[in-house]
# Entry
Amino acid sequence: MSYESAIAALADPTRRSLIERLRDGPQPVGRLAQDLPISRPAVSQHLKVLSDAGLLLVEPSGTRRLYRLAPQGFEDLRRWLDSLWDDALGSFAARAREIAKESNSKDPPK
# Structure
């Protein structure tokens, strides 16, 4: 999956909450749905969106399914964020060099 689908999936606060809950390890939908202000079927729909975006893996465990974070999906997202951060730092460094040049050209001769 792409980072675009991951970002779109994470735009929803309920989905971000589910991701936070899964940071502690694999969990079934019933446990994930506890204390959420939405129905269990709605939680299942959110989990499907996260899974389709490549952020979750679903593992059968007896008669239930366990959901866990998908490392590769988050790696793809992290790689994109890192490239964005690298671009921002590069732009900052280029601007700092421009300011330093402008400052040096305005200094009076010695």
Remarks:
- The chain has one domain: 1-110.
- The CA atoms of residues 57 and 68 lie 5 Å apart.
